[in-house]
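User: I'm writing a short methods note and want a consistent example. For Ragulator complex protein LAMTOR4, I'll paste the sequence; you return only the structure tokens, no commentary, since I'll be parsing the reply automatically.
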Amino acid sequence: MTTSPVTASLDRVPDQVGYLVMNEDGAVMASSGELENDEAAAGVIMKMVDVALRLQTGTDKQEPFKRLSVIYHEHMYMVTISNQKIYVSKRTNEHHEPITV
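Assistant:
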């Protein structure tokens, strides 16, 4: 797969361990790292995006949500919709112990 300006910028996301770029139909256009060729993850993320779009509230239904975060103890998925594409970045989640003052 050739490197485009978009995927080159995705490669520079801090603490990233993988990414997916999908079209609005859920087809994977680019992938890397732990998400490389991960069609199962792409399918699950598309289902979450579909549900989020259906649950969207507010006055402007024409404007879809911009970002969806799914946070686990060890890692997180940051999902962004832009220009009819869905960008998914899997990042490590630096867990910090609470500070007692």
